[in-house]
Write a structure and sequence with these properties.
The structure holds 2 protein chains of 2 kinds.
Chain A: H1 8-28, H2 32-36, H3 49-56, H4 58-91, E1 92-93, H5 97-108, H6 112-125, H7 132-156, H8 161-168, H9 173-184, H10 186-202, H11 205-209, H12 218-228, H13 233-265
Helix pairs in contact in A: 1-13, 3-4, 3-13, 4-7, 4-10, 4-12, 5-7, 7-10, 7-13, 8-9, 10-13, 12-13
Chain B: E1 4-5, H1 10-36, E2 37-39, E3 45-47, H2 51-58, H3 60-90, H4 97-106, H5 113-124, H6 130-137, H7 148-175, H8 180-188, H9 193-221, H10 225-230, H11 242-252, H12 256-286
Antiparallel strand pairs in B: 2-3
The chains are: A mainly alpha, B mainly alpha.
Chain lengths: ~270, ~290
C-alpha cells in the first residue's frame, strides 16, 4: 500500500464505528410513530420530546446522577489505595509478592455473572444494599487490580535515584510520596483514573444486582423502560445517546495519554 | 529494575488486600458453600459432595454453551486481532489527525454494555434499523430475531465493533515507541514492507499484543450483557453463552447448587488459561 492511500483504512474503520452510533442518534430525534412507520435515514419530523422527558422526569435523570456518583467514588477509592500498593510492587521485593500480584489479577478475571448472587447476599447482610457505596465497593473487585497493574507500570518507569535522593535529603516516606512522587507520575494517575472510570461506567450486571431504587444506575433504568411501558424506542435511543456523553468528555481530556498509558502501563 | 528486599512493604499493600479480599473471598466462599451442599433455605445445608459437579460436567446443556463460548471467542479473536493490527499500521503517526482518530476510535469502549446491546438491537432491526433495512432492501433476507445464523453474525460483528479499538490502541501505542531511525535503516537496506512488519514492527508490538489477546480472551469469555440485550440468548438457545446460561440457571431457575458448581468450573477455566498466558508473558519479559 502506498503512503498516500493509507488513510482509507482508518477512515473506513471509523465510518463503521460511527454508523450504529448515528442510527441511535437519529432515532432519538424521531417520534414513536415515525420509528414504527418504517426506516428513514434522517428524522422527518425532528423532535426533542424524548430528551425533554429525560431531563424533566427524576426517575430518568437521577439514573445519570446515581451512575456518576458511584463511578466517581469508585475511581477515587481505587486509585487512592492502589497508589501505595503499586509503589510497593514496583520498588520492593517482599514475601509472596509475585503470588500476591497474580492473585490480584485473578480478580480481574472473575466473571461478574459468578459473583452476582453472592454479592447481593453479602451487601444485603451488611445493610449496604441499594446504596452508591455498595456499587462503588463492588466495582473495586476488578478496578483495584487494574489500577495496581497500570500504576506499577508507570512507577517502574521512574528511576529509583529519585527516591534515594529524596530520602538522603531527609524527606520522610509519606512526605516524599505525596510531595514528589505523585506529581512525577501525574500522567499515569490520569490514565489509571480514565480506565477505572471506564470500567465502572460500562459495568451493569453488578450495579443492577446491588441496587433497586435509591442508587439505580441509568443503564438499569433503560432496561426497565424497554420492557414495561411497551417499546418506546425513541426514549430508549435518547437515553442511550446521553450515556455516550460522559465517556466522550473523559476521552477528550485524556486523548494524548491513552495510547501512551496503554504502552507504559501494560494494561 | 533491581528491587530491594523489604518485607515492611507489605504495609503498603494492606488497604488493597482488605478491599479486594472483602469482595473476593466472601462471595467466593458463598459459591463454594452452595457448590458442595444442598439447601432448602433457612441456612440449613446438607453435604452433597461432588454431585453437582458431576451433574454439570455431564450435562449436554453445559457442553453446548461451552462449545458456543469457545466458537465465539475463537471467531472474535480471529477477526479482531488482524483487523486491529491492520488499522494500527495504517494510522497516521504524527499530526492533528492522530488525536481525532484516537478519540473517535475509543468511543465504543466507553459506552455502557447494555447500551451497546440496545444500540445494535435498534441498528439491526429489520424494517426499522439502518443495518436491517439496508440488508433487506438489498435483497438479503435478514432477521436476527429468528434466524440463528443472522443472530450469530450480528453478535460477532457487534463485538468486533465494540472491542477492536482496544487492540488498535494497544498496537498503536507499541508502534509509536519505534523511533524513525529503524525505518530509515530499513529503507537504506531496501527492506520490503513485509520485512519491516516482521522484523521491526511485530517485535515491538509483541508485548502489548499479548496483553490485548489476554484481555480480549478474558472479556469475551465473560461476555454477558451485550448478547443478552441484543438477542436474549436466542433464537432458541443459539447465542446462549456461558455467562447467560449461568445467570439463567442461578437467577431464573434458582438452581443454586448446579449454578455454583458451574461457576467454579467456569472460573477455573478462565484462571488456568490466564495463568498460562501470564507465565509466558513474564518469561518473555525476563529475557
Amino acid at each position: 500500500m502506498t503512503r498516500s492511500k493509507k488513510w482509507i483504512v482508518p477512515t473506513l474503520y471509523i465510518l463503521f464505528l460511527m454508523l450504529p452510533i448515528y442510527g441511535l442518534l437519529s432515532m432519538s430525534f424521531k417520534t414513536t410513530n415515525e420509528i414504527l412507520g418504517g426506516f428513514s435515514f434522517f428524522p422527518q419530523e425532528f423532535t426533542l420530546d424524548n430528551y425533554i422527558v429525560i431531563f424533566t422526569d427524576p426517575t430518568w435523570y437521577m439514573g445519570y446522577v446515581n451512575s456518576i456518583i458511584y463511578v466517581v467514588i469508585n475511581t477515587l477509592l481505587s486509585v487512592t489505595v492502589a497508589l501505595p500498593a503499586a509503589y510497593a510492587f514496583s520498588r520492593y521485593r517482599f514475601l509472596g509478592d509475585k503470588h500476591l500480584f497474580f492473585w490480584l489479577l485473578t480478580n480481574r478475571m472473575a466473571p461478574p455473572a459468578v459473583f452476582a448472587l453472592p454479592f447481593f447476599q453479602l451487601y444485603s447482610a451488611i445493610n449496604l444494599f441499594d446504596t452508591h457505596i455498595a456499587v462503588a465497593l463492588a466495582h473495586c473487585l476488578f478496578n483495584i487490580p487494574l489500577a495496581v497493574w497500570i500504576l506499577e507500570g508507570f512507577m517502574s518507569g521512574v528511576p529509583k535515584e529519585l527516591d534515594e535522593t529524596a530520602f538522603l535529603d531527609g524527606y520522610s516516606f509519606w512526605r516524599f510520596f505525596i510531595r514528589i512522587f505523585i506529581p512525577t507520575i501525574a500522567a499515569g494517575i490520569g490514565v489509571t483514573m480514565f480506565f477505572c472510570f471506564m470500567y465502572s461506567w460500562v459495568e451493569l450486571l453488578l450495579a443492577k444486582t446491588l441496587t433497586s431504587v435509591e442508587a439505580k444506575p441509568i443503564a438499569a433504568t433503560m432496561t426497565r423502560t424497554a420492557s414495561s411501558s411497551g417499546y418506546e424506542l425513541g426514549l430508549l435511543a435518547a437515553a442511550g445517546s446521553l450515556t455516550i456523553v460522559p465517556g466522550a468528555i473523559v476521552i477528550y481530556f485524556v486523548r494524548n495519554y491513552i495510547a501512551k498509558g496503554f504502552a507504559l502501563g501494560r494494561v | 529494575m533491581n528491587k530491594t528486599q523489604n518485607n515492611r512493604a507489605w504495609w503498603l499493600v494492606v488497604p488493597v488486600l482488605i478491599l479486594v479480599a472483602f469482595n473476593a473471598f466472601i462471595p467466593l466462599m458463598t459459591v463454594v458453600n452452595y457448590a458442595f451442599q444442598e439447601t432448602f433455605g433457612d441456612n440449613v445445608f446438607f453435604w452433597e459432595g461432588t454431585t453437582w459437579f458431576e451433574q454439570v460436567l455431564r450435562s449436554p446443556r453445559f457442553h453446548a454453551s461451552l462449545i458456543r463460548q469457545f466458537l465465539f471467542t475463537g471467531m472474535i479473536l480471529a477477526i479482531e486481532v488482524p483487523l486491529g493490527i491492520g488499522v494500527a499500521l495504517a494510522m497516521p503517526r504524527k499530526g492533528p489527525w492522530v488525536s481525532v482518530c484516537l478519540v473517535l476510535m475509543a468511543l465504543p469502549l466507553l459506552i455502557p454494555w447494555n447500551v451497546v446491546g440496545a444500540m445494535w438491537n435498534i441498528f439491526a432491526l429489520p424494517e426499522i434499523g439502518l443495518l436491517g433495512y439496508t440488508l433487506n432492501s438489498m435483497g438479503i433476507d435478514y432477521n436476527f430475531t429468528n434466524q440463528p445464523i443472522a443472530a450469530w453474525m450480528t453478535t460477532v460483528v457487534m463485538d468486533v465493533w465494540h472491542w477492536t479499538s482496544l487492540i488498535v490502541l494497544l498496537c498503536y501505542a507499541g508502534l509509536s515507541s519505534i523511533s524513525d531511525d529503524y525505518y530509515q535503516a530499513a529503507h537504506i537496506d531496501g527492506a520490503s514492507r513485509w520485512a519491516i512488519f516482521r522484523y521491526i514492527q511485530l517485535p515491538k508490538m509483541k508485548r502489548v499484543l499479548t496483553i490485548a489477546i489476554l484481555l480480549r480472551f478474558m472479556d469475551s469469555f465473560m461476555i454477558y450483557t451485550e448478547p443478552f440485550v441484543l438477542t436474549g440468548g436466542g433464537p432458541g438457545n443459539t447465542t446462549t453463552f456461558l455467562s447467560i446460561d449461568l445467570v439463567k440457571i442461578a437467577l431464573g431457575q434458582f438452581d443454586l447448587g448446579p449454578a455454583a458448581a458451574m461457576s467454579l468450573i467456569y472460573f477455573l477455566m478462565v484462571l488456568l488459561t490466564c495463568w498460562a498466558f501470564y507465565t509466558i508473558m513474564m518469561r518473555n519479559e525476563e529475557q
